[in-house]
Structures are given as structure tokens and as C-alpha cells.
Amino acid sequence: MPDDLSSHDLPSQELADETALHHQRWMRRALELAEAAGAAGDVPVGAVVVGPGDRAIAEVGNRREQDQDPTAHAEVLALREAARQLGNWHLNDCTLYVTLEPCPMCAGAIVLSRLGLLVYGTHDPKSGAVRSVLNLPDGPASNHRLRVVTGILAEPCRQQLQQWFQQRRQAQRRSPRTMTPTELS
Ligand SMILES: [Zn+2]
Predict the structure, then answer these.
(1) Could you say which of 27, 49, 55, 72 has the lowest number of CB atoms within 10 Å?
(2) Catalytic entry in 75, 81, 155, 183
(3) Strand segments (E) across the chain
(4) What is the pLDDT of residue 21?
């Protein structure tokens, strides 16, 4: 394996079938968690931390709106829960699956956790801080070389976000006057 894994990201189609299927299985779980977050009024992002023995040790969705906490992104919550489960904040033996490319805060938290492997679904061209806009893990402030796999179930992850924002825009366009009595009760 080359030392500089960051320049050798493996798109899903180039992974061995077995590895790709394994990643897809966990990403499907992250998509379910994202769906639940979306239904609860949060931007649908879901995250799973898989620990030693291929066991999920944290499964969470974004809770920023639910908790009114600007830091309650799925990744941060998942890292905290995983560290609590392991009784150890070093997550070298863990893989984090997340449906969307992490933002600067989450990319920073991922680096601090010494995460073993990050697998994310779709790129975030607006605030992705792992590859798209910034590359914090490979930047000068990072002391951890993060392995990254991108593009696992990228299309379902992208569509889920797109549909959620579309639905929200439609809901916002409806004025209260057009709501039925049932909706208002
Ligand atoms: Zn974030």
C-alpha cells in the first residue's frame, strides 16, 4: 500500500466486489438513519461507526434541529457515541460511514479521533471539507493521515438530500391560509 493513501481514493467501482458490497451494506444503514433524521425535520444525513468485529457501535442521524445544537451533526454524534462505547477516543480500528461528505467541523473531529477509515456517499460541493472544497485531513493542521473511500451509493445519497430540500421548499411555499383544518389541528 502506498504511504500517501489520500491521493489514492478508491471510487466504489474500483474496489473488489466483496469490499464494495460490504461498504454498501453499512451505507444502506446510514441512509435509513438519514431518512429518519429527515422525517424529524433535520437535513437527512446519517452516520454509522463500525468497530472491531464488524459491529456497529454508533448509529445516528443529524439532530441539529431536534436538539437546537449547531454541533449536532451525525458524524460528531457518531464519533462521540463510538468513543463512549469503546471507552477510548482513539478510533483507529473503526470505520465511519456517512451519507454526505463531512463539513469542516466534522472533518476536524474525524482527524482528532484518529479514525481508521472514512467512507462517504455523495460529495458536498458547497462545504465538503475532505475532498470537494477543502481537504482538511491532508492539510497542514492535520496530524493524522486519513484513509478515505468515496462514492459508495453516491446516487441514492445525493437523491435523498435533493428530494428532502425540494419537499421543504414546496412546504414553505404553501401559505398557512391554504392549509386544511386537519393540518392546522
Ligand atoms: Zn458536519
Answers:
(1) 55
(2) 75
(3) 46-51, 55-61, 95-100, 117-122, 147-150
(4) 94
